[in-house]
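go over this:
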Amino acid sequence: MDPRSFLKGLHPLEIKVLLRYGPGEPLDAGRLAADLGYVEGHANQAQAWLSAKELAAETGRASRAVYELTPLGRAWLESGTPEERMVAFLTEHGPSAMPAICQGIGMEQKDAGSAFGRLSKEGVLAMSPDKLVTVADPSRSRRSAALKALLAKAAAAEGGILEEADLDPAEKALMSEVARKRGSGDAAFRAAERETVTWALSPV
């Protein structure tokens, strides 16, 4: 192919990569984003086009776990987690039966039961002899505060996505409770695996 025709066939996304890097330099979507301002889709497209022209070649692949904030998680951040809403309701209305709590905060029985179980285990809530839920010690709900902080951290992250590698051990343990891989409509986070492709420009 005529060199001029070949050069005219290059896309600006490819040209910027060819002008910036030398053969053999390790490249991936993250580096192109940092150096060239590419979004992930542009970085992947440039790599695919250059590879198709045999101007680049893949050097490796690695999977990583990520957690994406769901619409439910965003709703919890704005309106309160089930635990927060339950404690707030009881603080305002006093000891109440579980059906009244569910109706008052618009929560299904199973979700309210799970929230009560977690808060009861922490010593925040208790069940009276006449089957009324009462507030024992609201200051003991460490999990609720940790979950709110995790939701806020995700909301501030690009795309609402947290990398597992960026979580501390306590955050990872909490994430294992609130994230789901499938059927994430009732979960605060959707767990997924993402693949990082590393590649390099080929010698001319």
In short: The longest helix spans residues 142-156. The chain has a mean pLDDT of 91. Strands lie at 56-69, 125-127, 133-135, 161-163, 179-180, 189-201. DSSP finds ten helices and six strands in the chain.
